[in-house]
# Entry
Amino acid sequence: MMLRGTRIAAAALALGLLGALSACAASPITSYTDESGETVTVNWRDYPATAWYGAEEALEMPMSGEAEARSRELLREAQAALEQEFGLGEWEAYGDPADYADWYPMGENGYGGESMLTTFNSQSWEAEATISREQWPRVIDVVAEVAERYGIDDRRLDEIDPEYQVWMRSETLFHEGEWLSVSVQNARLDPTGAAAEDAEEYGWFASGVSISYGITTIRDEDRAEFERRAAPFAGLDRPAETHPD
# Structure
């Protein structure tokens, strides 16, 4: 079962004003003196990474040619660790690979230009099981121990609407532009009964564990051009984004 979040739309007038302001915003410009004493001026519109994820970090990530194999290896290890400790098995991939495991261009860089970065999202792998709430933190810990061996060593408890918190726990394990998402749930714990009804109606797992992988990185064929475009920005503090989506 995959949780579908909801967003409350802002008023149309507010969105219109925001769009107009974004369209008129100027891209930041930075000038500095290089080692040869020459003045260098850069326009952040030309930055190949993004306002919220820097070129230096992106260059340290596994490149696109490695990412899918790395995803399969990491997810297999996490599945095996969960199977060993909790007896999980019969993992199923959610949806068609063509729809749920693919590469997506980053799009805008936050400064009015286009980013060269690309993002891979794996399919979500799910195993049905009934695991007590007391063991849910241990489920996350088991996956985190695997992720740490791959250098993915930060953790964030995902924000979940209060009505879901009684029957679901979700965390994201991450490092820079790479992450592993883990959810454990039991829809039967929903006192309203709605979660269990949805699971039955749509054929979702009522209870179990879900894991998926993602990374934002550089396409192999773009690395040389990315490095060339990033070089003038090396060592500079990134301005706050001026062109939010």
About this structure: The radius of gyration is 21 Å.
